[in-house]
């Protein structure tokens, strides 16, 4: 049976571990990106691998295409595609939230922190469901881009591989939240967002 947000106030069953106001999310993200775990090793290794792959394609293509074409694909990979993927990334979060049973889903942004986010107002999720919501955009978009890189010709390999690197860095917030669960994996952590208070709450089941 799913737990309702109101039930988490029962101090005999649950303990508040952490609350993070939305306007402090960037500090939370940066803090947990620095916490060394196997998950963070994977995240930084993926960033490095995708960056080196992109640079490898760039070196291979040097001298084979006009500089204007190379610059165009550089802009596509590092700017245009990352902007266009934002609504797609968030839509995947929305779909996976719906799969967990969430109903009051909202999409927001805080340009002062350069973040976009999806919240399911007062919808309590377990670590397993949270991993599904957080990882699905990374997995779907990464696998799609890898397939395209292997099949598309010439400069498209450069623009798509550079975009894959940028998108991976854009998943930093998702991985920081996942790292919180990884560090607290010995506890049964439940979490929910209050979209009206603009606070994320983490509770431990006692």
General description of the model:
There is one protein chain. The protein has 206 residues and is an alpha+beta fold. Strand 2 (105-110) and strand 3 (115-120) form a beta hairpin. The model has no long low-confidence stretch (mean pLDDT 92). The two termini are 17 Å apart. Helix 1 (25-33) packs across helix 6 (172-183) and helix 4 crosses helix 6. The chain has a domain at 37-102 and 126-191. The protein has a 3-stranded antiparallel β-sheet, with no helix packed on it. Helices cover 58% and strands 16% of the residues.
Which keywords apply here?
elongated; 58% helix; single chain; 206 residues; two-stranded antiparallel sheet; three-stranded antiparallel beta sheet
């Amino acid at each position: 049976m799913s737990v309702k947000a109101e039930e988490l106030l029962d101090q005999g069953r649950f303990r508040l571990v952490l609350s993070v106001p939305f306007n402090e999310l960037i500090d939370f993200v940066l803090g947990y990106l620095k916490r060394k775990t196997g998950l963070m090793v994977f995240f930084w290794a993926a960033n490095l691998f995708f960056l080196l792959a992109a640079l490898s394609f760039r070196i291979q293509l040097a001298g084979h295409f006009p500089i204007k074409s190379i610059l165009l694909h550089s802009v596509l990979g590092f700017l245009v595609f990352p902007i266009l993927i934002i609504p797609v990334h968030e839509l995947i979060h929305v779909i996976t939230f719906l799969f967990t049973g969430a109903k009051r889903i909202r999409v927001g942004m805080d340009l002062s922190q350069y973040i976009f986010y999806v919240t399911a107002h007062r919808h309590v999720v377990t670590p397993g469901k949270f991993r599904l919501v957080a990882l699905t955009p990374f997995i779907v978009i990464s696998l799609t881009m890898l397939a395209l890189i292997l099949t598309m010709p010439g400069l498209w390999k450069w623009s798509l591989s550079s975009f894959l690197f940028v998108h991976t860095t854009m998943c930093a917030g998702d991985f920081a939240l996942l790292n919180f669960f990884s560090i607290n994996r010995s506890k049964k952590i439940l979490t929910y967002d209050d979209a009206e208070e603009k606070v994320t709450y983490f509770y431990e089941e006692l």
